[in-house]
Amino acid sequence: MKKIVIAGTSGVGKSYLEALLVANHGFFQPLKYTTRTLRPTEQAGKQIISITGAEFEHMKKGTMFGFTLHFDNAQYGWLKSDLEKNINIVLAITLRDLEHFCKTHPSFWPIVMYFPPQSNEFIMQRLKKREYYEEKNSKERTVLKDKLKKRIQLSREDNKHIQAYSRIAQTHGGRAFSITDDTIVHNEILPFIIDLP
């Protein structure tokens, strides 16, 4: 049984790695509850459920969640019953929540994914692809550009602490990976996960 928690900056490929592990390696991806609007690529009820803030707080107070976090003005939560299953599990969280997650869920192997410094153009291209930038009209693109600039700034902030996040991963048996191109997931991260005991 392997339990994997992926932490990384926005657009680094956390969801892609999750999907690969589920589709090709028999991992279970716990349903994620969020208070944000779903992305065009997300199917409600399949991997994520969008709920109101009041519904989220009700579930949180009822101790239904095994882990929650706050990111970019939205709440996220995973059911306790899902995180405690004795099967291969994978989920993705923010870097800022990695230490707390590892302390409260020591059976999970942490994988840290980050962009190296000076990779702003690479990050922007990934984020544009994820948000279907080319399909947007002029007004939507303007709004989206501001959002993407904010995400790049968050990535820069996270990178200032990447050594600390890497140590957290190593302390808990995991590893950090610098995403320099689109081959790293297949050539380095997947083999590492598959070779875990």
Question: Could you please describe the fold and organization of this structure?
Answer:
This protein is an alpha/beta fold and 197 residues long. The chain folds into two domains: 1-28 and 87-197, Rossmann fold (3-Layer(aba) Sandwich); 29-84, Guanylate Kinase phosphate binding domain (2-Layer Sandwich), CATH 3.30.63. Helix content is 44%, strand content 20%. It contains eight helices and eight strands; from the N terminus they run βαββαββαβαβαααβα. It has helices at 14-25, 53-61, 80-83, 98-104, 120-130, 138-159, 162-171, 184-194, and strands at 3-8, 32-34, 48-50, 65-71, 74-79, 89-93, 109-114, 175-178. The strands form two sheets. A four-stranded parallel beta sheet has the order 6-1-7-8, with helices on both faces. The protein has a four-stranded mixed beta sheet with strand order 3-2-5-4. A hairpin with a 2-residue loop joins β4 (65-71) and β5 (74-79). It is globular, with a radius of gyration of 17 Å. The N and C termini lie close together (8 Å). The mean pLDDT is 89.
The count of domains is 2
- CATH architectural category of the largest domain: 3-Layer(aba) Sandwich
Q: Approximately what portion of the residues adopt beta-strand conformation?
A: 15-25%
Give the overall pLDDT as a whole number.
89
> Which regions have little confidence, pLDDT < 50, spanning 5+ residues?
none
State the helical fraction: 40-55%
Cα-to-Cα separation, first versus last residue = 8 Å
